[in-house]
Amino acid sequence: MIIDVPEGKDPLTYVWGELVPGIGPAAAAFSAAVYAHSTLALREFEAARLTIARVNGCLFCLDYRTERDGQRVEAGFFDEVTAWRTSPALGERERLAAEYAERFATDHHGLDEDFWSRMRAAYDDRQVVELTMCLGSWIAFGRLNRVTGLDEVCSLPAHVPGARG
C-alpha cells in the first residue's frame, strides 16, 4: 500500500473518511448511493460492476458480490460476464451492460451510433444515466483503491472472500 496509515487505523476508513475529510466522506456517500438506490436489475448491475472490476483490477471489487433482498448473482456469473460477447447465460440487457462498461472504461470515444442504437432499444434515458453514473463511480473508486493498494489490505462490509467465479 502506498498510503501511510497510522497504527491501529482501518485503512479503508482512514483513507475514505479521515485523510481527505472534505472529499472522502462525499465520495463514500456517492459510492454507497450507487448500491442503495440503483433501480437496475441485479444481474445488469453486476454485469456492469464486475466488468469495471475486471478492467480496474481491483481485488476486492472482483471478489465482492452485491446483495439485494438476500439475493446475489450465481456462482460462475463473473466468468459469464467476462465472456459477454458469446455467453448464452446473459440476456440482452446484461450483455449490453457489460459491453457499455467495458467500452466506457477503455474506449469511451468509440461509443458509436450502432452501439447507442442497441443501447437505446433496451434502456430508457433514466436507465442510461443511472448506469453511466454507476460506471463512473466504479471506475473512479475502484482505481483509487487499486492504485493506492487499498484493495490488497482491506475488505468491504459484506465482502465475500473468494466469491469470484
Automatic annotation (TrEMBL):
InterPro entries in the record, alphabetically? AhpD-like, CMD-like
**Gene Ontology MF annotations:** peroxiredoxin activity
Give the organism the record lists.
freshwater metagenome
Question: What name is this protein filed under?
Answer: Unannotated protein
Q: Which residues form the Carboxymuconolactone decarboxylase-like domain?
A: 26-102
Q: Give the matching SUPFAM superfamilies.
A: AhpD-like (SSF69118)
